[in-house]
Amino acid sequence: IVLTGGDDRLWKTWGFPNGNILLTGEGHTDWLSGCCFRPSGTQLVTSSGDTTVRIWDLSRRGCILTLRGHSRAVRGCSWHSCGDFVASASMDGTSKIWDVNSERCRYTLRGHEDSVNSIEFLSFSSTVLTSSADKTLSLWDIRT
Predict the structure, then answer these.
(1) Has the keyword Repeat been applied to this entry (predicted)?
(2) What is the tens place of the pLDDT at every residue in 55-81?
(3) For residue 100, how many other CB atoms are within 10 A of its CB?
């Protein structure tokens, strides 16, 4: 199964080798910039030009949580390997760490001087890697 998101504001899961669409999700009001499966495979996260991050439940086939807090388009998203946290990177120059269980922002990472274009958790750690239009990469320990 492959997950995609695009300018049409939709995410889709595709089955292979046939390439048939298995599920489609709609709800964002602008382009999708990122999407990835929760480590358990039961949910996914999407990020969008509409400034939101959304959590989707595959069995319910719908959005179960919309995370708001960025002031500009969200350029990327990532799940932590434990499945309890989502990271987002935004054109507002910040990144956020979201606690999915409490449904709130745990940390806002500030330090880049321009758009944060991507974000990834390093596997099985509390370290996050961000890349920015300011031509820098940053490693963050979300515990500190």
Answers:
(1) yes
(2) 999 988 899 999 999 999 999 999 999
(3) 19
